[in-house]
């Protein structure tokens, strides 16, 4: 963390020493004021809950199969035990595969988030770029991210200007 703060401090010092301008924005604040972002988040939450319920249903089925097996295994032949064990493992694998399909690194939730959020992020980026080019900013930092910014003057915060450019004037 200290190293990151020093890097930011050196970068800002270098920028100000060469008379370059910079600005701050608060991405969390901007996103909270964009209705499409809130709708996208709600849509992601709903689909995530639905998919989680599907995974949990398969896990419950596997658990039920296991409990039944435990209760009945003394009455089962070796072949029946083997079949039951395979059925349990198959159900557990099915649940695991479904979870990976929906929630894995390249899963459906990731793809859905990407498809819903990318247009919003592109819009914000375009607005920030236009404002930066108009005002001559060389660097725009996000004060909401964990970048080590301890203080930023409200005079250089362009968050409201970005919202106005996007049509969500405050």
Q: Can you describe what's shown?
A:
This protein has 6 helices and 2 strands. The protein has a two-stranded parallel ribbon. The two termini are 34 Å apart. With 170 residues, it is mainly alpha-helical. The mean pLDDT is 87.
SSE blueprint and pairings:
Layout: H1 2-17, E1 21-25, H2 27-32, H3 35-72, H4 78-103, H5 108-135, E2 137-142, H6 159-165
Parallel strand pairs: 1-2
Binned, the helix content reads: over 70%
According to DSSP, the number of beta strands is 2
Shape: rod-shaped
Largest sheet: 2 strands, parallel
Q: Output the number of helix runs.
A: 6
**What Rg do the Cα atoms give?**
26 Å
The SS-based structural class is: mainly alpha
Average pLDDT level = 87
Please give the oligomerization state of what you see: single chain
- Order of neighbouring strands in the sheet with most strands: 1-2
What's the gist of this structure?
By secondary structure, the protein is mainly alpha-helical. Helix content is 71%, strand content 6%.
């Amino acid at each position: 963390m200290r190293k990151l703060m020093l890097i930011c401090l050196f970068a800002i010092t270098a920028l100000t020493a060469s008379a370059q301008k910079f600005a701050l924005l608060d991405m969390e604040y901007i996103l909270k004021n964009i209705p499409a972002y809130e709708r996208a988040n709600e849509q992601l939450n709903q689909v995530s809950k639905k998919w989680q319920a599907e995974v949990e249903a398969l896990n419950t089925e596997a658990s039920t199969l296991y409990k039944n097996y435990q209760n009945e295994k003394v009455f089962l032949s070796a072949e029946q035990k083997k079949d039951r064990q395979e059925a349990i493992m198959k159900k557990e694998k099915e649940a695991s595969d479904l979870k990976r399909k929906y929630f894995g690194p390249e899963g459906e939730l990731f793809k859905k988030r990407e498809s819903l959020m990318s247009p919003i992020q592109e819009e914000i980026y375009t607005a920030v770029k236009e404002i930066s080019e108009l005002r001559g900013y060389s660097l725009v930092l996000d004060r909401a991210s964990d970048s080590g910014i301890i203080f930023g003057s409200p005079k250089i915060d362009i968050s409201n200007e970005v919202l106005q450019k996007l049509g969500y004037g405050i």
